[in-house]
Design brief:
Elements lengths: L1 H22 L7 E10 L2 E5 L2 E4 L5 E7 L5 E4 L7 E9 L5 E5 L5 E4 L4 E8 L7 E4 L11 E6 L1
Parallel strand pairs: 1-4, 3-11
Antiparallel strand pairs: 1-2, 4-9, 5-8, 6-7, 6-9, 10-11
Bound molecules: copper (II) ion.
Length: 150
């Protein structure tokens, strides 16, 4: 009888764990989306130049600056439509330098650096919005992309 009670307890525990994970939309099945920032012969770019997100899906925006100068990612109108779970900054060894929480509009990324921005879109966009680099001259040089939240 003792064995049966123990087995039931284990089953109950095993069942409780996935139920918790399902309840937290910001942590389940995170999709990585890389946004590369750089320069080439025709100017500056964000690659890719179009993004599609779905409400309720957790994303990790991997902001990769492959350039020799700093760039930034501004979510502009998308800010009001996404929940920022956190932003993570690691050093070259992969050790955590900072974790930032709260609503964030722009993230500046140093030359050759990568920052991870964890978001969950919560509201759809009526029409495409822009993800941009707002540093002077960079938008006109090509650093903008379109994004939709479905
Ligand atoms: Cu830029």
């Amino acid at each position: 009888m003792k064995t049966l009670i123990a087995a039931t307890a284990v089953l109950a525990l095993a069942h409780a764990v996935p139920a918790l994970a399902e309840g937290d939309l910001s942590r389940a099945n995170v999709i990585d989306v890389t946004i590369e920032m750089g320069s080439n012969d025709s100017g500056m770019y964000l690659k890719p130049d179009h993004y599609e997100f779905v409400t309720g899906q957790a994303y990790k925006l991997v902001l990769v600056n492959v350039d020799e100068i700093k760039h930034e990612i501004s979510l502009n109108e998308m800010v009001e439509r996404v929940f920022t779970r956190k932003i993570e900054i690691e050093d070259d060894k992969g050790d955590l330098v900072a974790e930032i929480k709260g609503s964030v509009r722009e993230v500046e990324v140093g030359a050759g650096k990568t920052v991870e921005w964890f978001i969950v879109p919560v509201q759809t966009t009526d029409e495409p919005v822009e993800i941009t680099c707002e540093l002077p001259g960079h938008y006109d040089s090509g650093m903008h992309a379109s994004a939709v939240i479905k």
